[in-house]
Design brief:
This protein is mostly helical. The mean pLDDT is 88.
Length: 435
């Protein structure tokens, strides 16, 4: 049985083993476990019962990650997406006064559209339409993005009313613990120690607890609470209210966040084929579309691929076993949700910073001396962290690519889908600017 599993997950071809994959799965879980606390807090503001949405968050992340690992065999973990949950709560439910049950119906419909477009091959066409030169920019941009998130969690980057962001206090315990963890992880990485990131996370967690630097309070949850949200979505309400705009936003942002994360993780793991294609792409897209539908049914906002998956890849994860391990841990988190907060931000922040720095290696593939490539790549690279959105950064890159090639007289008829994507992104930005 063990040999069959190793053959199915292609351990020999990928140069991996059970120990590495399990460590990678644990690493991914630890870097994204914050969602078990944050997502329920956001959706609770919309009136979704907190214990129920806590269980729904864990269950949807478990289902989606395991499905991705088993069906697509990639080390990509999924969970309810940040940004989309805020849009669900603060724009759709609170600003537009849409009941959370109806908003879940809109999420369900966006997932159905996802699945339909995957079945007929349109999502695959969209991914192939994006110039492969932008892949490296997306990977690098996501590297900057998750490093930026890590610096925020560490308190090293803080809000500033005059300059938007500023330097936090190095005397903040979270900040210096983060730096200690970063030094430890890099030192272990240099020495090629397996599980260097996980060792660093656990070490910093131990130090934080030893010096009473963790302020943790049990959260609520439990599988029984799901009765408050499971199958409570109102699909017909979403249709009758004409929520096409909301469905489109859920669909559009999730589509390009997913594609960006997919490119970044597969590129970091060295899983992109020489012809720039992604093997088993249909299965990956099927898994994330199904995950969104499942999430809406159990009671949470759009489920999407997580950039924190790159932490597991950096720890050596190469196969679907990494995602399965992460999913199993999320499943366990349903019962253990009161203890999720025991890992402090100071322990996960250095992991995000380290992984972000490693992902910047991809930008060496960009032809910086060619303006037709360099400008779109730069916009993609820099606007992903600056706008706090993978979709926005990729959108600006695609628009710039299309416009520059048009003005240079290098537009090709076979690239029609790229220009259509550019037009859609442009329309979206204009609409958002007017709203």
């Amino acid at each position: 049985m063990r040999k069959r599993l190793e053959a199915y997950f292609e351990f020999v071809r990928l140069g991996t083993n059970w120990r590495t994959e399990i460590l990678a799965g644990v690493t991914t879980f630890l870097t994204m476990a914050y969602i078990v606390l944050v997502n329920p807090a956001v959706l609770a503001d919309a009136g979704v019962p907190l214990p129920a949405v806590t269980a729904a968050t864990c269950l949807s992340a478990a289902f989606a990650s395991i499905l991705m690992g088993v069906v697509a065999r990639y080390p990509i973990a999924l969970a309810p997406g940040m940004g989309l949950n805020a849009y669900f709560t603060y724009t759709v439910c609170l600003k537009m006064h849409v009941p959370w049950q109806t908003a879940l119906g809109a999420v369900f419909l966006s997932g159905v559209i996802f699945l339909a477009l995957t079945t007929v091959g349109i999502r695959q066409m969209i991914l192939r339409a994006i110039p492969h030169q932008l892949y490296a920019a997306v990977a690098g941009g996501i590297g900057l993005f998750i490093a930026f998130i890590g610096f925020q969690h560490a308190g090293l980057v803080v809000r500033d009313p005059n300059t938007l962001v500023g330097m936090g206090s190095i005397r903040n315990p979270t900040a210096y613990l983060t730096l200690i963890g970063l030094i430890l992880m890099v030192a272990l990485e240099i020495r090629k120690v397996k599980g260097s990131i996980l060792i660093g996370v656990l070490t910093v967690t131990g130090i934080a607890w030893a010096f009473h630097m963790v302020h943790w309070a049990p959260s609520t949850g439990g599988i029984g609470a799901l009765t408050q949200t499971a199958f409570k979505l109102n699909i017909m309400g979403a249709v009758n209210k004409g929520l096409l705009e909301i469905i489109f936003v859920f669909f559009f942002v999730d589509l390009f966040d997913n594609l960006g994360t997919l490119v970044a993780v597969t590129k970091r793991a060295g899983l992109i084929a020489p012809d720039h294609s992604i093997p088993r792409l249909n299965r990956i897209l099927f898994a994330d579309a199904t995950a969104t539908i499942f999430g809406s049914l159990v009671g949470t906002s759009t489920v999407t691929s997580y950039v924190e998956s790159t932490a597991g890849v950096a720890a050596g994860g190469r196969s679907g076993v990494t995602a399965i391990v992460t999913g199993v841990l999320f499943l366990g988190a349903i019962a253990a949700s009161p203890f999720i907060g025991i890992v402090p931000p100071a322990a996960t922040a250095p992991a995000l910073i380290l992984v972000g720095s490693l992902m910047l290696a991809s930008i060496t593939e960009i032809h910086w001396h060619e303006p037709l490539v360099a400008v779109p790549a730069f916009l993609t690279l820099i606007l992903i962290p600056f706008t706090y959105s993978i979709a926005n950064g990729l959108g600006f890159g695609i628009i710039a690519w299309a416009i520059l090639h048009l003005f240079a007289g290098k537009a090709r008829r076979q690239d029609w889908l790229l220009y259509l994507l550019a037009a859609l992104f442009l329309a979206r930005f204009i609409y958002l600017g007017a709203s």
